[in-house]
Amino acid sequence: MFEAIVIGVSAGGLKALTAILPVLPSDFPLAVIVVQHRHRDSDNFLDRYLDDLSSVRVKEAEPGEVILPSYVYIAPAGYHLLIERDKTLSLSIDPPVNFSIPSIDVLFESAAACYKNHLIGLILTGANSDGSQGLKLVKDYGGYAIVQAPETAEVDVMPKAAIDLVDVDKVIPLQELGVFLAQEKFSSNVEMSRRVLNE
Amino acid sequence: MKPEDMQEFEINQLLEAIYFRYGYDFRDYSKASLERRVLHRVQQSDLGSISEMLPRIMHDTEFFELFLRDMSVTVTEMFRDPKVFKKLRKEVFTQLKTYSRVNIWHAGCATGEEVYSMAIMLKEEGLLDRTRIYATDYNNHSLDIAEKGIYPAEKMKGYTESYITAGGKASFADYYLAKFGSAKMVESLKEHITFANHNLMKDQPFAEMHLIVCRNVLIYFNPKLQDRVLTLFKDSLISRGFLLLGDKETLDFSQVKPSFETFSKEERIFRRMMYV
């Protein structure tokens, strides 16, 4: 079954994440790992704000941390966030990718290699194309690709770029995304189960 | 089996080969970043897979040098996180002033920007003349750049801002000579710095350090190698010596934790306890 969701989001992210994360139930069976593009000197306002609004626990990702279900991990400003194959988090200060640090591609690529077909990749609003390559790799490894419907995105460049490059499984309006991920606690979602069984 | 499923095996095989052939042990690195760099090199060199790169690594020492360079590329800058430097200056230097000789070790100094930042602050606090800074890295290419102390002039504007935020007391422009688009750090800083090759993966401790700076190096290591390195630091520090880590790094999961107290949580400054 699915074990984790990786989310990539840029401009307009606060609103988008606020529409999704608070909808997830406290016993949400998946881990959620997020790259939100933001300025390097940003503090941890975003993590705290979303944590206050949500039933799942939202926190800044720490190096070496073991990834747990019902947790949302947000990449710290100024660091790439990666997932090791032993399902722990790691950080790097490698050069920016797509002019971004953290970069969505970097998170998605490492997540795909770790979770393979147990991973859901989700691209939300944003003004550049970071994340498209990563989402493609999520698919290559047998994962499930979701993109926010561009017409519901504050900035539609990122979702459009992802849809152009990747054979996505679902395009979903922002207002329905939280419910979609939370439905039947996702792990028993029929369409998903069939897909994974067919792999 | 799909090609992507072989990647983990290929990486491990490559790291074993490098260790066998050259003695560089990357086996205890965090794999995700390392894998990204390896794949980048594969792509840059027009190779089809990690396995295709293996023979070149084994038989072409120049190619291996190139690879080694890739492995140690990090983004460094002067006065990165100025508030950390401010804290050092205000609180740690006060302690260092009580010693007649001060030894500082920058472990994993890369291209040297932080070393010069440190030297500038020491100078402004009247400490540089009694200080020896040991700046080490395993990558000779980075060390060459560090030793020359020549950086792109266009970066100086940003560095100047950070210098001021870090509590700089003079004019940052006094510390470099600008010429043909580059900025060369002045000799009066350099003469207090010793650049040397040192490999945290396998080399011995330095003795009698008052302050060790190692920022954003441990994040690239797995817990086992982190412990090795932190033990090395513990053994290199004098009693009551200081350790400065990167702003996401911690001693929490390390076996050396009982040997240190937290001096400043926010700035990640730790202090060696009396012989624990």
TrEMBL record, chain A:
Residues 1-183 form the CheB-type methylesterase domain. Pfam families: CheB_methylest (PF01339). Its EC number is 3.1.1.61. It comes from the Bacteria. The active site is at 10, 37, 130. Keywords: Chemotaxis, Hydrolase. It catalyses: [protein]-L-glutamate 5-O-methyl ester + H2O = L-glutamyl-[protein] + methanol + H(+). SUPFAM superfamilies: Methylesterase CheB, C-terminal domain. PROSITE patterns: CHEB. This is protein-glutamate methylesterase. It comes from Shewanella nanhaiensis.
